[in-house]
Design a protein that fits this description.
single chain; alpha/beta; Gyrase A, domain 2; Isoleucyl-tRNA Synthetase, Domain 1; four-stranded parallel β-sheet; three-stranded antiparallel β-sheet; RNA-binding
Length: 633
RNA sequence: GCGUCCGUAGCUCAAUUGGAUAGAGCAUCGGUCUUCGGAACCGAGGGUUGCAGGUUCAAGUCCUGCCGGGCGUACCA
């Protein structure tokens, strides 16, 4: 490092040694200092508590021609200051230029733009040094959070009595991605799969097993038989005329067993009361049910720290109800026990007239147990939006109750991470042609099958001699499953999404395959040219960003940490997929226009460094999203 | 009925939570290049953000009212 470095570069490197540079948070600190001075100078009174909110208005610019970051708070402050927005902006700019350190990272802002935007442009030298730091950093320049929290994430949570279907995938995939992202951010994450293993659906299976079970099929394939029984008994219990009209077998059984619904409830109550026969049957069913879902999780590459299902909390339910009644929060109503909350038409029911407990009861007991054993700062529930009212009432009740530890409960952040419904291409909830919900396993199979065809189409062009059967299968599995996961993650989670294999398996656009391809392409450079990446990381002490496309790519690279911050702020993984897509786009533009291996000297060193970082960050980003990568495809 | 979410290009989706000229992909049309992985890159056309008002320096975003839809709404989860 020497004459290649210009300006104050070495100083910056020294200051951030072994660290990383987050330009956005640096910019916010500079703005905060400027605003404090503005207030001290009497231009406009700003309370210290207002500063964080105001500096949050420092964001990435909409268009690179305005610079890299811009602050918009001058416009908001203008009225209070009794001045024109542009004048307030000019006042802020003059203070900004007096803040120590700003000019090392940013070019000095000169004058307000438009109605009063204050634009900052990162100095290329500072950006180059940030890349050098990131290159040597195993965290790729992303600093961990200052204050780590303990966060419980509750996701997937299928009913084990019935086969997993397409409706379970968003919760599973979004929850898993959030767990990985927040853990990388530095939080202490506890994942917990709150299985539905104790509710009415088991009453259905119990009744079905006793009256309608095909013992031979059960012996051979227990989960398939239990699944059949669940679907059949559910039809009988619901007794919807239109369903029965389409199913002669069910209609005939209806005549034989007219009171199925009541009988199912009775079986559920007996289970909950500890009836030996039902409990022993439940214990017999569970291993097969668990095995079934585990197979799917292993294929999805998803695992949990804990799998504490509803049944786990069963011993605590009576005490929860007693506690709430004792505190006067719950009371008897129409034979049931209910918590009435202002603003809701229906109360939160915690015990049915027949004595059985409900999922609200279990959920309350679960919060209490988690507080007692894990002392979390946050509990996140990744559950579809149809349950939003349940969670509002649940959270409100938990806060009123105190869960046996009012101080902790008060501080606990409870969040319902809602997501939309998966629709078919006809705009209706995703179903098979016959109208059944789509089984998750067959969905994964089809995704992998289609991926295999696409991969085979491209193979001939690229591989001398072809790939082994194992290679092909493994690539198809990674690409197919990745496509399905990415489709769920890349969408704003609050909106409904339309399921389309054709769209999610496209090779261009914001898809997993495009991202996976980008990784394979970047990393192919090193393997084909025989360049050791460790050497690149160790020996690159200076990079020089000259071409605008080098600079644009470098900026995307150092913004990786900002994207992760934004994901956490609103629990939205699609902000990470968007950042990955932007990065891949910047890389394509860079790579298409500028030679890397054919470049020489400092230029080659710089470009190799950018390639290495691009590959690592794309790979890390996909890993945090729970999406696999391949070395060739 | 009440509550809640939504309505953005032909299609599928974004839009930094009130910021600058509403952006991508697909599809359509055009261009680049004697492939460092062309599954590439560059560009064009395509919009009254459901409708009508309002709030303000600034509205796809907030408020009011309509139109159209999803979901929830007492003993399933």
């Amino acid at each position: 490092m020497s004459d290649q470095v210009s300006g104050e570069g070495p100083q910056i490197l020294e200051r951030h040694k072994g660290q990383s540079v987050n330009f956005r948070s640096q910019a916010r600190q500079f703005f905060a200092a400027a605003l404090e001075r503005l207030s001290a100078d009497g231009v406009v009174a700003i309370g210290p508590e207002e500063i964080p909110g105001l500096v949050e208005q420092v964001r990435e610019t909409a268009d690179a021609k305005f610079g890299d970051y811009s602050g918009t708070m001058a416009m908001a402050l203008a009225k209070r200051a009794g001045q024109k927005p542009r004048d307030v902006a000019a006042e802020i700019i003059s203070r900004l230029n007096g803040v120590p350190g700003l000019s090392e990272l940013f070019e000095k802002p000169t004058e307000p733009v438009g109605p009063g935007f204050i634009n900052l442009r990162v100095r290329s030298e500072a950006l180059a040094h940030a890349i050098v730091l990131a290159l040597a950093d195993s965290r790729m320049g992303v600093a961990p959070v200052d204050i780590p929290q303990t966060i419980v994430i509750d996701y997937s949570s299928p009913n084990v009595a019935k086969p997993m279907h397409v409706g379970h995938i968003r919760s599973t995939v979004i929850g898993d991605a959030l767990a990985k992202i927040l853990a990388f951010r530095g939080h202490s994450i506890i994942t917990d799969n709150h299985l539905g293993d104790w509710g009415t659906q088991f009453g259905m299976i119990l009744w079905g097993f006793k009256h309608l079970c095909d013992k031979e099929r059960f012996a051979v394939a227990p989960t398939a038989e239990l699944g059949r029984l669940y679907r059949l008994v559910r039809k009988l219990a619901d007794a919807k005329p239109e369903e029965l009209a389409e199913d002669p077998q069910a209609a005939a059984l209806m005549a034989t067993y007219p009171a199925v619904a009541a009988a199912v409830m009775a079986e559920t109550v007996k289970l909950h009361e500890g009836d030996p026969e039902n409990v022993s049957l439940w214990e017999r069913f569970m291993p097969a049910c668990r095995e079934e879902i585990e197979r799917i999780y292993s294929r999805l590459g998803v695992s949990f720290d804990h799998t504490l299902g509803e049944s786990f909390y069963q011993p605590h339910l009576a005490a929860v109800v007693d506690d709430l009644v004792g505190m006067g929060l719950a009371k008897k109503s129409r034979g049931a026990t209910a918590v009435f909350l202002a603003g809701y038409e229906a109360p939160l029911l915690i015990r049915k007239a027949d004595g059985a407990f409900l999922y609200a009861t279990t959920d309350l007991a679960t919060i209490q147990w988690r507080i007692e054993h894990w002392q979390p700062d946050q509990i996140l529930y990744v559950v579809d939006h149809r349950q939003s009212q349940h969670f509002e009432q649940l959270f409100a009740t938990a806060k009123l109750w105190g869960c046996g530890n009012p101080e902790r409960t008060e501080r606990l952040k409870l969040v319902h991470i809602a997501f939309g419904t998966v629709l078919g291409e006809d705009g209706r909830p995703f179903k098979t042609r016959a109208g059944d919900t789509v089984g998750l396993e067959s969905l994964l199979d089809e995704g992998v099958e289609r991926a295999a065809q696409i991969v085979a189409n491209g193979e001939g062009d690229r591989s001398a001699g072809g790939w082994s059967e194992t290679d092909r299968r493994q690539i198809a599995e990674t690409v197919g499953i990745g496509a399905i996961k990415y489709a769920d993650l890349s969408q704003n989670r609050t909106t409904d999404s339309t399921f389309s294999f054709d769209k999610m398996l496209q090779l261009t656009g914001n898809t997993a395959a495009y991202m996976q391809y980008a990784v394979a392409r970047v990393e192919g450079i090193f393997s084909r040219a025989g360049i050791d990446r460790e050497t690149v990381r160790r020996e690159t002490t200076v990079v020089h960003l000259v071409d605008p496309r080098e600079r644009a790519l470098a900026l995307e690279l150092v913004r990786f940490g900002e994207a992760l911050e934004d994901v956490e702020a609103d629990y939205r993984p699609n902000l990470l997929t968007a950042a990955m897509y932007d990065l891949a786009g910047s890389y394509s533009t860079f790579y298409d226009a500028l030679p890397v291996l054919k470049a020489e000297g400092q230029t080659r060193v710089t470009r190799l460094a950018l390639c290495d970082m691009t590959g690592r960050i794309l790979r890390k980003g996909l890993e945090l999203l729970g999406i696999g990568t391949v070395t060739k495809m």
